[in-house]
Amino acid sequence: MSLLEVDGIETYYGESHILEGVSLSVERGEVVALMGRNGVGKTTTLRSVLQLTPPRSGTVRYDGTDLAGLRTHEVADMGVGWIPEDRRIFSQLTVEENLRVSVPDGSDVADALSVAFETFPILDERRDQPAGTLSGGQQQMLALGRGLVGDNDLLLVDEPSEGLAPQIVADVAEALAATASETTMLLVEQNLPLALDLADRFYVLDNGRVVDDGDADAVSADDERLRRYLSA
Amino acid sequence: MIPVDSLSVALLQTGFVDGLLDFLQPDVLAGVVVRGLAKSAIYIMIAAGLTLIFGLLGVLNFAHGALTMIGAYLGGLVMVLTVANGTGPWTRLALFFVAMTVVFGLLAALGGSIELSLIRPLYDRPPIYQILLTFGLTLVLEELVRIVVQFYGLQPIAKWQQALGTIPVFLETTQSLGPLSVRGLVFFEILLGALSVAGIWGFLTRTRYGLFIRAGSEDSEMAEALGIDVRRVFTVVFALGAGIAGIAGTLLMWDQVWGASVPLAADTLLPAFVVVIIGGLGTFRGTVVGGLVVGLVDATTTWWFQNVVVTWTWLPEVAIFLILVVALIVRPQGIYGVEEVGGH
Amino acid sequence: MAISSATELRQRLETSWPVESIQRQQVYLVVIALLAAYPAVYHLLSQSPLANETVALLPRMETMVGVLYFALFAMSFDFISGYTGYLSFGHAAFYGTGAYTVLLIANGKVPLLPPETPFVATLLIGAVLATVLAVVIGLVSFRLTGVYFAMITLGFTQVMYVFVRDWDYVGSNPRDGIALSGARGFELGVPYVDQLTVALGTLTGDTLTLFGHTLGTTTVSFYAIGVVVLLCYLGMQRIVHSPFGRVMVAIRENEERAEAIGYDTFRYKLGAFAISGFFGGVAGGLLAGFKRSVTPETGFYFLTGGDALLASIIGGFGTLAGPLWGHLFDEVIREFLSKQGQGGGLLPYLREALSEGVLTTELVGGLTVEGFITAALNGHASLYVGVVFVLFVLYVPDGLVGTVRDRLGGPVARRLPERLWGER
After folding, report:
1. CB contact under 8 A, B322 and C159
2. Which own/partner pairs from C331-336 qualify as long-range (CB within 8 Å, at least 24 positions apart)?
3. CA-to-CA separations, B34 to B39, B41, B256, in angstroms, rounded
4. B342 at the A interface (CB within 8 A)?
5. Cα distance from B12 to chain C (closest Cα, Å)?
6. pLDDT, tens digit, for every residue of B9-22?
7. Euclidean distance between CA atoms A26 and A2, whole angstroms
8. B213 in A contact zone (CB under 8 Å)
9. What's the fold here for domain A4-88+136-227?
10. C254 partner at 20 to 30 Å CA-CA among A53, A194, B95, C226?
11. Across the interface, do B219 and A90 touch by the CB < 8 Å criterion?
12. CA distance A176 to A140
């Protein structure tokens, strides 16, 4: 049984029909890349899984359970983590508080924090600073750290390299790899080399539908297959 | 608009300079500052709940004044029932803290039920409906209180004298502290205000729930995605906000200037709005600073009105609103406000 | 124009300009006819066997006059708040300005304007002043949106309220506002032409004798003010259905997009606000003209704006006619439930209608039925109106007219005839 099974979901924003039947799956331990041009519905797919923008039809199954009708915090409690576009860290809270907030109730906070600080030492250095004072790359680490700390089996990561300078992207890629080794990941990323490097498999989205999929190893960034659906 | 006849001008010219010199005397200044701090304490207590509620839910709670007023009456009720003529001052003070606790509990319960039954259904609608609802709620609450109060033979628009009478002697009479000579209640208000600020600040910064509230105020969607049941936090915060309003009301029951009466609802609501907006809607720090600003300005203009410019009777009240207008022009998001309150 | 048959005659008539006009406007005509007939209906019913019920349930004429000019105020409120989406919590400022201007001039307190200045002129002056005020407030306030806009307009109005309440130029006791004495009422109509003017006011107004029936002073005021309100409504309506009005709605739906398309939304907002201020001022002037008095509370207190808000919620935001029905609904309930002696109907009606036995039945702890209904019904209209308001916000958010619009799929005037008589 796949960890995540999405079957024919159709999602709307108001009256806009964004997802017109998206199906994909993610196995335990995998990193799956979700690619496509701007506006095709990649973020919406992640939001649909989280039930932030619940699909009007189709099913989302996580670890065998149908997520329809669940509140987002219930989905999060089940082990689905979200690293959204723009990071969305709490800028008024300190780095440490950002992490604390993500620790599930009942878990050992100190343990969880030390895991995060080991993986991302920079966060330890700045643990008492307001998160808003961190650089873009550091905020991304913090966002990933939140995902780690949240005891998640599945991480939904949205455009982690967006807006970051190339040398920072390399750091983020390392951080992603480190995170990926601990958990399962569904990664939305427009940086093709980064995505294909990390991922085991990929899906391509166009106009609210999955139009292609395959093994990440079998394909390179300048493949004709991909060029058709993606901006260079 | 300002009455400009030559007599006023002359008065102004001679009065102003003298007034300024009087004002800058240390004992006068100290008196104004202390009274200003007491007013600040009250404004902060009234506005604290409002800002917490707006920060997290994005709802501007028009019913906040009505909740404060209910707190005043309930607090008065407890005091009137338990205090007899012979009750000693320290006992009265102790009973006051009992009243505060009772009122906090009752009003928190009221606030929580209001949120659950009336506000929650409106989450998916444009925010204007939540404002409208709390506005209608204020009408209903005020009338209900009016009916009950009249039924028991009290005048709804007059301050509840009996409640005022339960005040302990040392708070009612003038106390001296160095050059200062003010009613004991002034010091008590400052004390209570400081305790409230410390209590709320501690709650927000040192407890897990406070962390949830702060995170949710910044970005409630993200908080939900991290596993926080944001809806339940909404209800808790509304209850808390109502409870704090109730405590503020209980304190006001003893204050001659305010007193427990139905118009207290409107009288507290408007300054609360000003405080919250000046400081920054949704930030507790902003409310504290805003309260200090408004309180001190209020005390200053009151002194000026009473001692110097007697013809400008509208000065103290107008001053507060002018601050609001100026603040909204110069820095609409308030001193500590963020441009965008996320998740709203 | 040879007419060959009866059929052709009918066709010619049906497509002629007057008949088509009437068909297009039939909903308006019906509404106007209903309102115009009210005095007659009320009068007849109060002489009939149903007199007790009538007096109990239906609003008195004096209340109906108030409904008219306050409805105009509520409409002006809806004009800005419902159509552009900017909630004007300080709308009372315009109402108060209109009223105070008229009364101050009539009291001789305004330099350059003698007390004999025709009412129509002072009314317009008041409205213009209100417009200027709107522009001033708008210049500052429209830099903000949403809650902040509402709060700053509220702030301005509160400043005016406090100021007017303590300004002794107004009178020896400014808290009581202004009250005009004198036998001759304000005259509405073409100035200096006696045949075309009527004096307003219950005590000071004119009576009118038509076809052998004499209309009382209040009724005359009702019609006169009704004409003014109708004209204003039509004016606002015209604007709302024009390209200007469409931009207003665009601002409400998505202001960023409207700006992106190229509209200077600031100018449009300011213009709409000015217009709403003008009509709010007219409403205030009419209040002054009829009641001959105003207090800081009725004029400037923010709760007056609250009543307009109430009317708009019950009637429906963004419908223009909605606030009229909403306010009528509000007033009917208020009068129905108000204190005895102020027209309040339900309480005395119940007292008479219920038998002695029922009235003295004890309910709980010494409280009789009579005691209960007295406590609950004596002048607590605000409570029930507030409850209605909350219920509407929760369950009928589009208001009465708004919900009807939703059902019909468009503005009532256009769609209702289609539904009733089929497409033409």
Report:
1. yes
2. C331/C59, C331/C63, C331/C64, C331/C66, C331/C67, C332/C58, C332/C59, C333/C381, C333/C384, C333/C385, C333/C388, C334/C381, C334/C382, C334/C385, C335/C59, C335/C60, C335/C63, C335/C381, C336/C56, C336/C57, C336/C381
3. 9, 10, 17
4. yes
5. 17
6. 665 666 666 667 77
7. 6
8. no
9. Rossmann fold (3.40.50)
10. A53
11. yes
12. 10
Tell me if A49 sits within 8 A of A78, measured CB to CB: no
Candidates B140, B310, B320, partner chain C, best to mutate (most C CBs within 10 A): B140
Could you report the predicted ipTM of this complex, rounded to two decimals?
Answer: 0.91
* Segments making up each domain of chain C, as ranges: 31-337+380-421
Residue C110 is classified by DSSP as S
CA C269 to chain centre: 22
Give the span between the Cα atoms of C185 and C198, in whole angstroms: 9
Helix, strand or coil, per DSSP, at residue A176:
helix
Token couple for C289? 């003209």
| Domain span at B190 | 40-264
Residues in chain A, overall count: 232
H or E element in which residue A215 lies: strand A209-215
Domain positions in chain A are 4-88+136-227
Residue for token pair 């002054």: C288
B310 touches chain C (CB under 8 A): no
Contacts of C82 by beta carbon, 8 Å cutoff, 6+ apart = C312, C316, C317, C318, C319, C320, C322
C144, C167, C386: residue with CB nearest B328:
C144
Token code pair at residue C73: 């105020």
The distance in angstroms from the start CA to the end CA of chain B is 41
Decide: pTM greater than 0.90: no
- For A70-98, the pLDDT digits (tens) are 999 999 999 999 999 888 999 989 999 99
Range 16-75 of B in CB contact (< 8 A) with C = 60
Is the Cβ–Cβ distance between C221 and C206 less than 8 Å?
no
Asked whether residue B326 is assigned to any structural domain, the reply reads no
**Topology annotation, domain C31-337+380-421:** ABC transporter involved in vitamin B12 uptake, BtuC (1.10.3470)
| CA distance from start to end of chain A | 35
- Reading chain B (344 residues) residue by residue, the pLDDT tens digits are 555 666 666 656 666 666 677 777 777 888 889 989 999 999 999 999 999 998 888 888 989 999 999 999 999 999 888 888 777 888 888 889 999 999 999 999 999 999 999 989 888 887 778 888 988 898 899 888 988 888 787 787 788 877 777 788 777 777 777 777 788 888 899 999 999 999 999 999 999 999 999 999 889 999 999 999 999 999 999 999 999 999 999 999 888 788 888 888 888 888 888 898 888 877 898 999 999 999 998 888 888 777 776 666 667 777 887 888 788 778 777 777 765 433 32
H/E run at residue A204: strand A201-206
Question: Does residue B200 belong to any structural domain of this protein?
Answer: yes
What beta strand segments (E) does C112-228 contain? 178-179, 187-189, 197-199, 208-210, 213-215
Kindly give, in sequence order, each residue whose CB lies less than 8 Å from that of residue C58, ignoring residues fewer than 6 positions away.
Answer: C42, C45, C332, C345
Mapped onto helix, strand or coil, the DSSP state of residue B28 is: helix
- Assigned domain for B182 exists: yes
Q: Phi-psi region for residue A57, left (φ > 0), alpha (ψ -120 to 50) or beta?
A: beta
* C-alpha dihedral, C352 to C356 to C358 to C360, nearest 10°: 120
Q: Which of B5, B135, B142 to mutate to test the interface with C (most CBs of C within 10 A)?
A: B135
Tokens read off for A99? 């992490």
Using a 10 angstrom Cβ sphere, with 0-12 exposed, 13-18 middle and 19 or more buried, the burial of residue A222 is: exposed
Q: How far apart are CA C270 and CA C142, in angstroms?
A: 7
Q: How many CB pairs under 8 A join A and B?
A: 62
DSSP helix, strand, coil percent of chain A (3-state; round to 5): 35, 25, 40
Alpha-carbon torsion (B93, B95, B98, B99), positive or negative? negative
- For residue B315, tell me if it sits in a domain: no
